[in-house]
Amino acid sequence: MKIGSGRYSRYIHFIPGIVLLFAILRLPYSYYQIMRWIVFLSSAYYFFDQLRQLKTYEKYCLSRFQIKYGGSALVVLCGAAILFNPIIPFYFSRGTWMILDMIAGILMLCCGYVYFLNFGD
Fold first, then answer.
1. What is the share, in percent, of the chain residues with pLDDT greater than 90?
2. Would you call 66 helix, strand, or coil by DSSP?
3. Distances in whole angstroms, Cα of residue 115 to Cα of each of 92, 97, 103, 112
4. Burial 46-77 (b: 16+ CB within 10 A, else e)
5. How far apart are CA 27 and CA 66, in angstroms?
6. End-to-end CA distance of the chain
7. Where does residue 84 rank: exposed (0-12), middle (13-18), buried (19+ CB within 10 A)?
8. Residue 44 in contact with residue 85, Cβ under 8 Å?
């Protein structure tokens, strides 16, 4: 599944990571609410897309490393979707959120980079 087909559509996968890294700054609370939706929806999208790819990999009998890596990505993406869900939010201190935002931002940028390389035009 591909998002968009325009000239800049390859870069859309970097948005969640960038949004998370900007969350380290002191911004209005509405920014963090919007960020939760962006990260939640993109994590859910990546999760289901990774699940679909994992099923495809199993059909073609690729190496166990690829299947294991895909399973690890599923756990990370599911964790991000749960942690940043806007429906039943978690409440942590600002310092804890800064650490979580930084870690999640880096992971989402890595995920975006993989999509950029594999699914670009």
1. 21
2. helix
3. 30, 26, 19, 5
4. bbebbbeebeeeeeeeeeeeeeeebeebbebb
5. 39
6. 13
7. buried
8. no
The structure tokens listed for 97 are 């959120």
Angle, vertex CA 38, rays to CA 35 and CA 42, nearest 5: 140
Angle between the N-to-C axes of helices 29-59 and 15-22, in degrees from 0 to 180, rounded to the nearest 10: 150
User: Can you read off the two tokens belonging to residue 118?
Assistant: 């594999």
**Segment 41-89, tens digit of pLDDT:** 988 888 887 777 777 665 554 445 455 555 667 777 888 889 999 999 8
User: Does this model's pTM top 0.85?
Assistant: no
* CB count in 10 Å sphere of residue 115: 19
Tokens of 119: 């699914």
The token duo for 8 is: 């800049």
Helices (H) and strands (E) in the chain, counts: 4, 0
